[in-house]
Design goal:
The complex is a heterodimer of chains A (161) and B (165). By secondary structure, chain A is mainly alpha-helical. Chain A contains 5 helices and 2 strands. In chain A, helix 1 packs parallel to helix 3 and helix 4 packs across helix 5. Chain A starts with a helix and ends in a 5-residue tail after the last helix. Chain A is globular, with a radius of gyration of 16 Å. Chain A has a two-stranded antiparallel sheet. Chain B is mainly alpha-helical. Chain B is 67% helix and 4% strand. Chain B has a two-stranded antiparallel sheet with strand order 1-2. The chains are: A mainly alpha (161), B mainly alpha (165). At the A-B interface, helix 2, helix 3 and helix 5 of A face helix 2 and helix 3 of B.
């Protein structure tokens, strides 16, 4: 468990280093900051509902795994999502490429839960791929809604041109 | 998410404080851009949910909020209204009174005490059930939380167009 935590920290640091240098090309720093916080906050609410209330996914109650998954909720998943949104505004991708990126995003996040089940860290109890897709779809809609609203306000208030 | 088993004092307390904070929010003359308000509210939504995951949930379980350990609509109400809007008020007067240097320490201390008194009242009506937590630890959390809010606010001001300064 401790090894998994260490690997998670290293992976998240590497991921953050790779992604953070690319984020500010298409998104305003306030968009990156607000989207990151919002996504992370929503993920905590999802955790309350899925893990605590309904126990659809059960997880080892140890501190090492708790922190490993918290780091993923604080860094990996939010920044992966913000990176996806950043790519939407990039001119290097054709619309079909952006659709593929979005599908890849869903695949990574659904796969992430199944990967943890495979490792024995998650035990699914009435949880399946459709539930997982629904979870990430809700996150995607909430986060993109927030970004759309924030970008509208930023432009209206001349924070960005 | 769950509704409360009994709609009693703790739920009324959350409804009352949420409404009070919304009224204060709208009564205060506009001082910040919508973008800044957006950032303040989202930051405190994040701080509330993340703080409660760290301290209130397993494996630490320092405290429970409301009637049950599970997450309910009234917990969400605190994350959406109570925490963000109280931090908004703290930032509002920090900016209005131009507090800097040592007085800022006193200002943050003062708000942490006010929030602590509110928490004590909330505790009396069973909003909180302390398991491995005491109210003085909350004081430290409030102080740090308000200090972070001030830092975030100062950072956002770097991007504010001249007409809002």
């Amino acid at each position: 468990m401790v090894i998994y935590l260490i690997l998670t920290i290293l992976f998240n640091l590497l991921f953050l280093t790779l992604v953070s240098s690319k984020l500010y090309k298409n998104l305003h720093p306030l968009e990156v900051f607000t989207c990151w916080l919002f996504i992370s906050g929503v993920l905590q609410v999802f955790k309350f509902i899925i893990f605590l209330n309904h126990k659809w996914i059960q997880c080892d109650p140890g501190a090492a795994l708790f922190w490993a998954f918290q780091i993923d909720r604080l860094v990996f998943i939010p920044f992966l999502t913000v990176w996806l949104f950043d790519q939407y505004f990039s001119k290097t991708w054709l619309p079909a490429g952006k659709v593929l990126l979005t599908l890849g995003w869903f695949l990574i996040l659904v796969g992430f839960q199944y990967f943890n089940q495979l490792l024995g860290f998650f035990r699914f109890s009435g949880w399946n791929a459709v539930h997982s897709l629904t979870e990430w779809l809700i996150l995607y809609l909430l986060a993109s809604g927030l970004l759309f609203a924030l970008r509208t306000v930023l432009k209206r208030e001349a924070f960005m041109t | 998410m769950s509704f409360p088993e009994h709609f009693d004092m703790n739920e009324w307390f959350i409804v009352g404080t949420s409404l009070l904070m919304i009224v204060i929010f709208f009564l205060l003359p506009r001082r910040f851009s919508v973008t800044q308000i957006f950032v303040i509210l989202v930051f405190n939504f994040f701080a509330g949910t993340t703080g409660d995951t760290f301290f209130g949930g397993p494996p630490y379980n320092f405290y429970d909020i409301m009637d049950r350990p599970s997450f309910g609509y009234f917990d969400l109400s605190t994350y959406v209204f109570d925490f963000p809007l109280s931090a908004y008020v703290v930032i509002y007067f920090f900016d209005k009174w131009h507090i800097r240097g040592l007085p800022l320490f006193g200002y943050l201390l003062g708000w942490a005490i006010v929030t602590l008194i509110m928490e004590r009242v909330a505790d009396l009506v069973n909003v909180f059930t302390y398991i491995h937590w005491n109210i003085y630890e909350s004081f430290v959390v409030y102080f740090i939380s308000y200090a972070l809010n001030i830092l975030v606010f100062i950072w956002t001001k770097r991007y504010v167009p001249q007409k809002y300064v």
